[in-house]
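Example record used in the benchmark description.
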Amino acid sequence: MKLLVLGGTRFLSREVAAQAVARGWDVTCACRGTSGPLPDGVTHLPWDRADEPPTAVTEGGWDAVVDVARLPSHVRSAVAATSGAHWVFVSTVSVYADNTSPAMEPLVEPVTDDVDLAADPEAYGGMKVACEQVVRDHASSSVIARPGLIVGPGDPTGRFAHWPQRLARGGEVLAPGRPDDVVQVIDVRDLAAWLLDLSEARTTGVFDAVGQPMALGELLALAAAGVGNASPDLTWVDADFLEARGVVPWAGEDSLPLWLPRPEYGGMLAHDPGPAVAAGLRLRSVEETAPGCLDSPVTALTAEREAEVLAAWHGR
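Model output (structure tokens):
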């Protein structure tokens, strides 16, 4: 297999390139090469995607292309430059307009222009919809994978790693919302392996690339077991109380990852992995994923703030 990975220096695209090399494939990573080191064994093809595709891209004779881009102009340029290749495009569940539901419809309106997400983060899903349309309409053949929350070794976001790290420290742990709130995560290694399988088989279609939905309480118990905490001491604190004390959902400073407002986001982490599993996706357990997250960077609720909120909860 002659594979072109658009990227290759960070998280998912890097894992895809590394696993493809391990399979013995001929792997080229087209990128600027400034966001981190490329895996051993790949060929680096320097390309700033704001520029025209180099001849080495257009004449590469690629069997498949894997792309994680979010800017429509970048996807348009790359699809036009790789005629004959099977495209594997990594989209997102953020393309869905109704986060109360796990259904694969309706989609948000496409955003066909490139938008700076620092100025307008809400444009992310719409740009991914536009990218999907380009791939489906113009690639020789294609498959669209829509992941939810991707986790595991190398994750730069810490949107899951907070929990293995916090549970490994032990003691009383602030657990947000309700233990039966449904969530799901997918290990980057499992997703990367499946994307390569899709490349090799030239699979077509659109799939939610997600892990098994489970109760948050179950996920935290499995993560705790994975880092050696057999009996985690979880104190469940309701959403209104957390919000009143400045704790925020999902990500960032003072956040508790995996916590989402309900019912507004009740379906965002509850999609059906069944079709992807039927197409070959193999999922490891959260218990297996957790140990690989102990060294990941985390931006979330600090230990001091957690203690303050727990004290307020017990003293209410």
